[in-house]
Amino acid sequence: TITYTALVVALGKAKEAAKAHAVLGQIERAGLRVDCHAYTAVIKAYEKSGMPAEAEAVLDEMAAKGVEPNVVTFNTALSAHAGAGDVAAAEAVAERMRAAGCEPDASTYAALAGAYAAAGEPRGAVDAISQAEDAGVAVSPLCYNMALAAYGAAGQPQACRALLERMRRKGLQPNVFSWSAVVHAAAQCGDPDGARAAVREMRARGVEPNVYTYTMLINAHGAAGDLEGAARVLGEMRAAGVHPT
RNA sequence: GAUACAUU
What is the pLDDT of residue A120? Predict the structure, then answer.
């Protein structure tokens, strides 16, 4: 089964999800038992191919065969829905997981937050973080960054600021992704000065802006019709040793 | 056997 599972993984990486799934039949025909790892690899294959419904169907197949999914299995299925921004389906997997007596871990909450972020629902992403913290599960900065990015895209700098503060209270250092979300939020609000101030502040805190951050800043100036300012930012970026792409 | 982050 381990040998066949290696094949499933390889096919999954090549986005040959249907072929990966078919290998399970080969395992059975060889008189071997399809285990949790093999099923998980198939779910992963569907996830990589952007086929969340098929991924979820594998969970049903497992139930029918009496094979218990583990936390990785559930998280992988959840990620498949998260990638599609399908919040309802992602929550359903989380529910299914709890019903199976499987404890959600940091990856579970991160995938849930990602689902809400992909759906453009920052509040839901923050709720997922809150749930994790209530459950005593420590979340990574990445989890916050997904919620921050959603607020950034929505042009809500004040919400970004509040979340940055919350990160710090939890002992997490906002990184370049976190700060770039603040810059993005200001840019989306048509507030180049706010964007500039955010960049100043991140530097003051020892976080260097990267090409994404500068691009957002250039955009903020450009959108406000300040072409001179936009050109100036480009110069600053080069001076900082960040190369345009 | 996984995993998720930003600019256009």
Answer: 95
Question: In this structure, what are the phi and psi dihedrals at residue A132, rounded to the nearest 5 degrees?
Answer: -60, -50
CA nearest A74: which of A85, A62, A88? A62
Q: What is the 3-state secondary structure (H, E, C) of A22-34?
A: HHHHHHHHCCCCC
Stated in angstroms, how far is A22 CA from B8 C1'?
40
Q: What nucleotides of chain B have any atom within 7 angstroms of a protein Cβ? A: 1-8
How far apart CA A223 and CA A71 sit, in angstroms, is 45
**Side-chain half-sphere of A144: how many Cα atoms within 13 Å?**
28
User: Tens digit of pLDDT for each residue in A36-47?
Assistant: 999 999 999 999
A160 in helix, strand or coil? helix
pLDDT band of residue A213 (cuts 50, 70, 90) is very high
d(CA A157, CA A135): 28
Å: A48 CA to B4 C1': 13
